[in-house]
């Protein structure tokens, strides 16, 4: 039996399946139906998307067909593609994702850009022994800190998350990119295990939960049915975590250290008020994402 060729269903070639699935997705209002069909089929066949077209008349074997059907069903039930295939591209790097972590968003690349703009490649310490240290809070899949560590290897990186499963996944992602010695991951609820007398950082960065509780159920089903609510829920006004981080981070920053945060598209004024009331920061700057929303805020600890 072992050496017998797998039985293939001549009815269902790659190209036929792509056509059928695309129109099925269309009729169910699934975003980008053709590319979704391609990504799912390529995943099932363990091929690159482009290779689908080099083998367009290849029929699928029964096993592959049933796997593909399962993935179509999952997508129709609104499970995000990234969870079905288990990876998401961010900063041109592939990150493993599971339902334990938020899927990295394109707008979060602005947070990476903002951090990189403050981190000279040579670490700003040529010839000096103490590299600058950077902490990410609520790292999830690790995408943000790993993208930064990949771009700027000469710094010391730390990243925490409350979820043990997230930390495991982030460590897995660090290995995937050969960055396992670059970032120290640890389990923590914001600043709880840190002691400001002992540990300070040159930069603290976070994309905390910032969605108002009552708004979550009105987001796309892909988000509220599948993504971890704890990574989205910023409490009644959406600002609970941002407020806590802003009011606490200055105690953990070195002189002139920077705090960088991703914020909701309509939170600029509220966040500015929180920063002003706190009174421990200067040089506050908001940066827009590619859709034109104020998405990132950076501030320096007051001297
Ligand atoms: N940008 C995410 C969304 O709109 C929210 C991420 C967050 O709360 N940090 O779903």
What do these coordinates show?
It is a single chain. The chain is of the alpha/beta class and 303 residues long. It has 2 domains: 70 residues, Helicase, Ruva Protein, domain 3, CATH 1.10.8.10; 215 residues, Vaccinia Virus protein VP39 (Rossmann fold), CATH 3.40.50.150. Helix content is 38%, strand content 21%. β5, α7 and β6 form a beta-alpha-beta unit. α1 packs across α2 and α11 packs parallel to α12. It is elongated. The N terminus is likely disordered. Glutamine binds next to loops.
Which helices and strands occur, and which strands form pairs?
Elements: E1 8-13, H1 14-27, H2 33-45, H3 49-54, E2 59-61, H4 62-76, H5 81-85, E3 87-90, E4 93-96, H6 109-117, E5 133-137, H7 143-151, E6 156-161, H8 164-176, E7 183-187, E8 201-206, H9 213-216, H10 221-226, H11 240-249, E9 253-262, H12 268-278, E10 281-288, E11 294-301
Parallel strand pairs: 5-6, 5-8, 6-7, 8-9
Antiparallel strand pairs: 1-2, 3-4, 9-11, 10-11
Bound molecules: glutamine (GLN).
């Amino acid at each position: 039996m072992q050496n017998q060729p797998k039985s293939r269903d001549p009815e269902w070639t790659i190209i036929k399946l792509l056509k059928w699935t695309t129109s099925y997705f269309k009729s169910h209002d699934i975003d980008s139906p053709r590319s979704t069909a391609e990504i799912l089929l390529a995943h099932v066949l363990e091929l690159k998307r482009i290779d689908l077209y080099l083998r367009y008349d290849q029929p699928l074997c029964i096993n592959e067909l049933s796997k593909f059907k399962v993935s179509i069903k999952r997508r129709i039930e609104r499970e995000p593609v990234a969870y079905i295939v288990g990876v998401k591209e961010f900063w041109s790097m592939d990150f493993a994702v599971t339902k334990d972590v938020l899927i990295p968003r394109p707008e979060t690349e602005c947070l990476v850009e903002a951090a990189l703009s403050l981190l000279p490649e040579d670490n700003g310490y040529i010839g000096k022994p103490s590299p600058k240290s950077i902490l990410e809070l609520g790292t999830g899949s690790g995408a943000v800190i790993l993208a930064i560590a990949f771009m700027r290897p000469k710094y010391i990186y730390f990243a925490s998350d409350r979820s043990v499963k997230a930390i495991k996944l982030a460590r897995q992602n660090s290995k995937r990119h050969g960055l396992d010695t670059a970032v120290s991951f640890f389990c923590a609820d914001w600043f709880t295990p840190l002691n400001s007398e002992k540990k300070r950082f040159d930069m603290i960065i976070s994309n905390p939960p910032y969605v108002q509780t009552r708004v979550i159920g009105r987001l796309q089903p892909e988000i509220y049915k599948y993504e971890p609510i704890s990574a989205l829920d910023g409490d009644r006004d959406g600002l609970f975590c941002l407020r806590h981080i802003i009011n606490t981070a200055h105690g953990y920053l070195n002189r002139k250290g920077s705090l960088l945060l991703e914020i909701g598209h309509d939170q600029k004024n509220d966040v500015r008020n929180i920063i002003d009331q706190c009174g421990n920061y200067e040089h506050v700057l908001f940066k827009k994402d590619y859709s034109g929303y104020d998405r990132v805020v950076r501030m320096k600890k007051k001297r």
